[in-house]
Amino acid sequence: MTSDVYIDNEETTAIKKNKSFKLLTFSSLFSLLGDQLTLLTLPWIVLSLTSDSLILGSVIGALGLPMTILMLFGGVLVDRFSPRNILLTTKLVSSVILLTAAFLLYKEMLTLPLLYVLVFLLGTCTAFAAPAASSILPRIVEQQSLQSANGTLMFLRSLATLIGPILAGVILSSSTSQDGAVQTESMALAFMINGLGFLASAFFIYRLLIEHTYKASGQTIFKDLVSAFRYTWNQKQLRLVIIYATLTGLFVSGPIQVALPLFVKEQLQGGPGTLGFLMSASALGGMLGMLIATRVPQIGRLTLGFTLLVVDLIVGIALMGFSTIENIQFAALVLLMLQVLTGYVQVALVTWIQSQSSPEMLGRVMSIVMFTIVGLLPLSAAMAGYFLTFYESDTIFSLSGISLACVSLLALVLTDMSRIKRVKVA
Q: Keywords assigned by UniProt (predicted)?
């Protein structure tokens, strides 16, 4: 299979006329905003039931745990059945879970054991929905339009991270006690709106028709998963990309997620408002990068692999310098600029991975890719937490930057990653 993918700039206009893509876009917007509502409302629900921070962490962990243990099997089911049907089912089930939680909250019948069960089931739906959604796009969009389509959906994801907190704040503030505590009615309202949003998302997927070409292999689910790993491993460039993504994710994603709040508190002398400001700047940078990727799919004659490695090298060096920043505005500017670079590369890389996978293996391949990025995040965060017991947060940023720079530099010098062809403008 060739690594060359050609994109015409006129395809940006073509996807706007694609009815199936419009349906997927509307569905994604509702579910992405719903995800943000869940993430921001859930801590308040836990705190209304207990003040134990350990329980709070374990409930959040119960939401992410299925992503780690079930996502790979989700990819197998997506390839065995229609990804459209898998996605439709997960959205309907998610809606039922959220509306049930809203009812229990309103009636003050929700208990911690019930919350654990509902949150775990919600995370399970996400574990199956993620590979299904990523497998649908290449089936409804022409290959020439794939990068523009990916950029649009990723832009919406970043947009949801900006709008979601505002929406959640308005809903949760609609009913508060005299001491400022969030009332049960507000939390129930947030989950009810979220449940109805997933129902709307399911409606758009219901109207989406795609062709499913999977042929039964006669193998067990486990053997199908092994076949996917063998398929991925036998493609040298795809293998290199996944190994590289695993290493950079372990060394960078978790440490930044865990160390940033401490860095804000210890070095920037800030609080929750400062952290929110920095995260908003980061999200805005990602949005800009993804938007640029939809308009400028190619930078000169640079290959995708070379661009990826150089961007990561720049980010690594910047993280080393970031550890010395003491000005909040400058820190926000640095995060914004770094996310412009990574957002752009992310769109191009996901498009390339989708183009390298055969339709019958697409769900499993994308589940492997997402597992390396999302599924290993808890392990990466745990590693960062361990090192934070020995080092300050600024040191963690320095170590993450050094690790990323070294991995990207070694990949540039010792592997063929730099030869991976990028999306070219026809």
A: Cell membrane, Membrane, Transmembrane, Transmembrane helix
Domain count, the chain: 2
How confident is the prediction for the chain on average, in pLDDT?
A: 80
Q: How confident is the model at residue 176 (pLDDT cuts 50, 70, 90)?
A: low
Q: What are phi and psi of 376, to 5 degrees?
A: -90, 0
Alpha helices (H) in 50-145, listed in sequence order = 53-80, 83-106, 112-140
- Cross-strand bridge partners of residue 5: 423
Q: Which residues of 275-295 are buried (b: 16+ CB within 10 A; e: fewer)?
A: bebbbbbbbbbbbbbbbbbbe
Hey, how many other C-beta atoms are within 10 angstroms of the C-beta on 273? 10
pLDDT over 70 at 423, yes or no: no
- Phi, psi of 423, rounded to the nearest 5 degrees: -65, 125
What does the radius of gyration of the chain's CA atoms come to, in whole angstroms? 21
Beta bridge mates, 424: 6
Angle between helices 146-172 and 19-49 (to 10 degrees): 30
Are both 264 and 318 inside the same structural domain? Answer: yes
